[in-house]
Design goal:
homodimer, alpha/beta, five-stranded mixed sheet, about 45% helix, globular
Amino acid sequence: MKIIVDVHGGDHPEEVVKGAITALNQEKDITLILAGKEEEINRMLTGLSYDASRLEILPATEEISCSDEPTVAIRTKKESSLVLAYNRLKDDEEVVGLISAGSTGAVLAGGFMRIGRLKGVSRPALGPVLPTLTGGKVLLMDSGANVDCKPVNLCHFAVMASAYMQAVEGVKNPRVALLCNGTEDEKGNAQVKATFPLLKQMPSVNFVGNMEARELLSGDYDVVVADGFAGNVALKSVEGGVKTVTSTLKAGIKSSFMAKIGALFMKGVLKNMKQRLDVNGQGGAVLLGLKKTVVKVHGSCKASAVVGAVSQVKKMAEFDIATAITNGLAEMPALDFAE
Amino acid sequence: MKIIVDVHGGDHPEEVVKGAITALNQEKDITLILAGKEEEINRMLTGLSYDASRLEILPATEEISCSDEPTVAIRTKKESSLVLAYNRLKDDEEVVGLISAGSTGAVLAGGFMRIGRLKGVSRPALGPVLPTLTGGKVLLMDSGANVDCKPVNLCHFAVMASAYMQAVEGVKNPRVALLCNGTEDEKGNAQVKATFPLLKQMPSVNFVGNMEARELLSGDYDVVVADGFAGNVALKSVEGGVKTVTSTLKAGIKSSFMAKIGALFMKGVLKNMKQRLDVNGQGGAVLLGLKKTVVKVHGSCKASAVVGAVSQVKKMAEFDIATAITNGLAEMPALDFAE
């Protein structure tokens, strides 16, 4: 099994390479392909020990940055690490997935333009895997790839995200909730109200009802389905809420001698909290619905996120998530998808 | 100036009464009307000292609970404290506003059904006033009263919320942002994309562009405009994020002896943080766009929130927010509000 890693596009290519090598040393049955500037990669590999027979470099001369217009960049930067990586992902049957820390827009555009959709999928979607209060994970799908959605899209997100939670997290019969402004069945905007009865009728989805955004990380749900706009708002608001508390706490500690001493005593707890809430360490956001899997790690990610992402791609391939998704969609009853 | 307070419907009527009396003692030029069960109110007033000539009881025999269907309750529970309070608000020119800790649905329904809309307002809206990282406030409008919106509604929210920030927070030329999935002008779902150019053209709105949900509490904006669905998701996600950190922190402190000692040293900082992030202490969510002002305090609010709410209502009346809103709307250019 081969996995391709786009070295460029993020803030710390050396962390991407370091993470890839750590993953290569942990997973003995994979081959990694590093797409990027050969000289730079070789320099970054210096001093690292690994099984060279399972590492390949796919040389590129360009990179796509966050300031590039995504679709234009995919079309014109033909020698960029991301485009070459996508071409290889498409053409090489042995390559099962791609990992990139590059511009989300470019990663999405590349996926849509170079890799086809799976049969039956109306819209591929992107979702982050978030840590929950009970120590588990929750997949929020979509979180920004599709800002305008129809009910049928949300139903497909439910099938795809359920397959992911089974494949990677080993969750049997994942609990799927619909992001809403209340928990009652009759709550929601027009889109949610139209989607609710459809999800109820889907045999391949364990739909547990509407949920309020404050319960996103409660651990009561394995999958939360939303259109990309509302999902993005939820994701970033949670981030904002977390940041507000941690910033206020940090500023408080800085401003008081007593609190500084207190923080020393609490060091273990604070570190533990940081780790538990660190999305970075847990892999990346998954792009589902394409013929091959793509994981987008954070632009400023550390090596550990890349290690997590390799594990995500590997588990999805071993589970054969593509077949799980197409089977799940094929089982869908003839629903009335009119709006 | 008279302000009416609905005593029932929330979890702690005695806190509502206590807060009302504290406000009455602070604000020497107002009269408060407590709507509720007379015997209960008299019992709650026992032992409190106040100027009885500025306190009136509006006797009610029923209350509306959260399990009541809002519009049905407003229509049928004619002797409830909320309905009687709304009737008085409507009929008595001297009464400038209403405060309730009751069911949000019933408070909204009562407002829409008993109090008319201001001239030119397409949709009244509800917004919480949130604390920001820089020590200021931000008004998120709408946060749930209108889950399906048109661009014209969002433009009206901008005018109304700007008037509030001027009236109550004394912010000159409030910075208005549109809740979006990115900061770039061209970002957004269809609704945001249609609203953006309209807000740009409004002379009475200091529109500063799109914002990401993670910046909601940053202090960079005074008003954040959203449809009630996205606004609700943002509000509750922030709450969820804050809760996640504080719960994780609390559990960590509980589980370690060292951390418990640390928490003692950090007592001041932790208390200060709790106060700063406490929406409860800062008043309530404002319902704007009706002929009179309504403030909805949290169902489980403490007395301090009611004190804040009285101050909100008083300031809005002194500023004559109704005229500010109608003038702001009258200044709107003939925009193309087609979708």
